[in-house]
Amino acid sequence: MATPTKSRGAGSQSKPGRALSLIVIIMVALVGGMFLSGTFTPRLGIDLAGGTSITLEAKNEPGQPNAINKTNMDTAADIINRRVNGMGVSEAEVQTQGNNNIIVNIPRGTDQKQAREQVGTTAQLYFRPVLTAAAGAPTGSPSTSPSPSASTGDKATDKATDKATDKATDKATDKDSTEPSATATSQGRAVTDSLKADSTPSASSTGKADDKASPTPSADPATAALQKKFTDLDCTDNAARTKVNEGAKATDTIVACGKDSQGQWEKYVLGPSEVNGKDVKKAQATISQQSGQWVVNMDFTGGGSKKFAATTSKLKDQQSPMNQFAIVLDGDVVSAPSVSSTLSANAEISGSFTQESAQDLANVLSYGALPLTFHEQSVTTVTAALGGEQLHAGLIAGAIGLALVVIYLVVYYRGLSVVALASLVASGILTYTLMTLLGPAIGFALNLPAVCGAIVAIGITADSFIVFFERIRDEIREGRSVRPAVERAWPRARRTILVSDFVSFLAAAVLYIVTVGKVQGFAFTLGLTTLLDVVVVFLFTKPLMTILARKKFFSSGHKWSGLDAKRLGVQPPVRRRSTRRATASAAGPVDPKEA
User: Fold this and answer.
1) 50, 107 contact by CB (below 8 A)
2) Dihedrals φ, ψ of 373, to 5°?
3) At what angle do helices 448-477 and 519-536 cross, to 10 degrees?
4) Facing residues of 378 across strands?
């Protein structure tokens, strides 16, 4: 029975290099990920980087007592996030807090006044007829024709031929139905008695579209200015997209940008709006029973259905792209389906939708009908200087805490402190790289409470080392040498470490769930570093201790190793041969014959 036990022990001691190799590979992969992403520092929160934090409180519209719910709040947060990031603020944070608050964090370097205006203004959703469309890049000098489409007709033709375009059609089985439903699709299908979408225009039909899309030349300065704006617009430029429609009204003809189903930018000239977001009663993403594909169903109000019917009746006989209507949110085109029949109270938009894209479009359409308004509850501005001071103070606190732990380990554990310090370095590398990568991945921002969580984690990690070292010392006090003491101490220390870390992680998880705002940063960091403590102890500390136990400095119990038996209060065992000699001397000389 002893032989298998010894074999297992030998095996566990002979392959610590595998665990060390694994954690080294993990660290190299994380560092490599930092270089590939081009991000080398953690993303800082508002309290450290400086900026403005705005708390918006939702209020019910009159007659809508139950409008504040998770779905409406999430939709509103998504729209606000679109708007703020549309200003070029790529690091803005928009998140719901509690049941009726939305927190908007805008970093420094942003026009704070403009940002507050954008956040506090209700989103504008309009349905506008498409007058012409082209690729989103600048198209060079204006054509001799005053019409924008004249210089971009070929591009519009290619787009109509090659791109799958959303179409809207009446789904009513009776053409004379008073409340027809509509279908918009990007999948070309034959016209049937049920008024399904017609196919994408052929080359010959698109040629006609070019002729109809180009109005008669005009010397009107407003038309010339609109053409120049359309020609020069670069949709890939965030600032250009934001400024192109500043001050525009619903009754104005505008230039706008949007992305097609392939994610490519397109620009449009859009006519005055006759239908707005308030005319949408409900929008929902569902799976079509006929095609099995994701679609978006729209229901209009009584007044909205009349306006939509009037608009689509004008568009149905036009050629592409003038038979399209654009769904415009805050000046950006989110969809531009085409129409082949008059639509009224119900419409269905179908195309190459995924579940996510269909739900996104439904959310945009629903936002115009949200019975919510938002009011600024509080505005907190942190200057860059104050944020830098708080970060500096946090780093100093962490350095002091780390220094105290190092001094304690060196004084009390001597040579064993090398294991502890190396483990702390490994834990630091993992923590830093993960925090850096989690910034762009999930929007994690290192705020002051998160720094506090990282400082607390130093003590948690050091506690795991101390538990292991004390178990090893206990085994040595029982008379075992260093190598077997390390292996026998590990199972006992492992149980204690896992229980301790589980309690810490559970506390962090509960704190993260029940709190909001910056306190979640503390809980998240504490939970992350607790998990990393388990990884470091199992894959680095234990294997490293096994390797060092084979070295003479530790195995012989050198006085600076931290495992000196005499210093631990252990009396060296009296060898059996010496005992026999002492007994023989006390008994006197022995006759050789008797011996």
Assistant:
1) yes
2) -130, 155
3) 30
4) 55
> One-letter amino acid identity for 145?
S
Instruction: Give the tens place of pLDDT for each residue, 186-225.
Output: 332 222 222 223 323 333 333 333 433 444 444 466 678 8
**pLDDT value for 120:** 58
Residue 458 in tokens? 């130093």
Q: State phi, psi for 300 to the nearest 5 degrees.
A: -105, 155
Alpha-carbon gap, residue 405 to 420, rounded angstroms: 10
Tell me what pLDDT residue 498 has.
Answer: 94
HEC readout, 119-168? HHCCCCEEEEEEEEEEECCCCCCCCCCCCHHHHHHHHHHHHHHHCCCCEE
Q: How distant is the alpha carbon of residue 411 from its chain centre? A: 44
What value does the mean pLDDT of the chain take?
74
Q: What are phi and psi of 585, to 5 degrees?
A: -65, -40
Give the residue ranges of DSSP H helices in 348-383.
Answer: 355-367
Residue 331, token pair as written in the block: 């000046």
pLDDT tens across 265-277, in order?
888 999 998 888 8
Answer positive or negative: Cα dihedral of 426, 428, 430, 432: negative
Q: How many helices (H) and strands (E) does the chain have?
A: 19, 16
Q: Is 32 helix (H, G, I), strand (E, B) or coil?
A: helix
CA distance 244 to 235: 10
Q: Bridge-partner residues for 107, per DSSP?
A: 51
Residue 376 near residue 56 (C-beta atoms within 8 A): yes
- 156 within 8 A of 162, measured Cβ to Cβ: no
Q: Phi/psi class of residue 263: alpha, beta or left (left: φ > 0; alpha: ψ in -120 to 50)?
A: left
Q: Is 448 exposed, middle or buried (0-12, 13-18, 19+ CB in 10 A)?
A: buried
523 and 512 Cβ atoms separated by less than 8 Å = yes
Neighbours of 274 (CB within 10 A): 18
Find out whether 344 and 298 touch, Cβ atoms under 8 Å: no
CA 489-494-499 angle, to 5 degrees, is 140
Assessment of whether the complete model's pTM goes beyond 0.70: no
Pick from 291, 290, 342, 303: nearest CA to 168: 342
- The closest alpha carbon to 89, from 63, 56, 118, belongs to 118
Q: Can you read off the two tokens belonging to residue 151?
A: 């210089």
First-to-last alpha carbon distance for the chain, in angstroms, is 39
Q: How many CB atoms lie within 10 A of CB 32?
A: 11
For 537-573, b where at least 16 C-beta lie within 10 A, e where not — what string? bbbbbbbbbbebbeeeebbebeeebbbbbeeeebeee
Is residue 588 packed enough to be buried (19+ CB in 10 Å), middle (13-18) or exposed (0-12)?
A: exposed
Do 96 and 102 form a contact (C-beta atoms < 8 A)?
yes
How is residue 18 written in tokens?
């595998």
Q: In 10 A of CB 29, how many CB atoms? A: 10
Provide the H-helix boundaries in 414-481. 416-442, 448-477
